Amino acid sequence: MRIVIDDDLCQGHGVCESEAPEVFELGKGHLVTVLDQSPGDSQRSAVEAAVRFCPTHAIRLEED
C-alpha cells in the first residue's frame, strides 16, 4: 500500500497521527508529514483507521 495525502483537503486535525503515530506526524503550521509512504502490513490497521477517521477525507490508500 501507498499513502496519498490531498494537501488541499488536509486541515491538520492530527487524527492520522493519533491513529498511526509511526506513520504520520503533525508538524508546525498543522502540516501532516507521512513518515513512511509505504508502511508494512504491521501498520495496515492503524493506517486504515487514520483514513477512516480523517475528518476531511484527505488520506487515501493506493494498493501496489
Structure write-up:
It is a single chain. By secondary structure, this protein is of the alpha+beta class. 23% of the residues lie in helices and 22% in strands. The model has no long low-confidence stretch (mean pLDDT 95). The relative contact order is 0.35. It has one domain: Alpha-Beta Plaits. The protein has helices spanning 15-19, 44-53; strands spanning 2-5, 24-26, 32-34, 59-62. The longest helix has 10 residues, at 44-53.
- CATH names the topology as Alpha-Beta Plaits
Distance between termini? 5 Å
Which percent bin holds the helix content? 10-25%
Structural class: alpha+beta
With strands numbered from the N-terminus, the spatial order across the biggest sheet is 1-4
Number of helices: 2
Shape: globular
How many domains comprise the coordinates? 1
Strand and helix layout:
Elements: E1 2-5, H1 15-19, E2 24-26, E3 32-34, H2 44-53, E4 59-62
Antiparallel strand pairs: 1-4, 2-3
Short description:
The protein is α+β, with helices and mostly antiparallel strands and 64 residues long.
Please describe the structure with a list of short key phrases separated by commas or semicolons.
single chain; 64 residues; Alpha-Beta Plaits; two-stranded antiparallel ribbon; 22% strand; globular
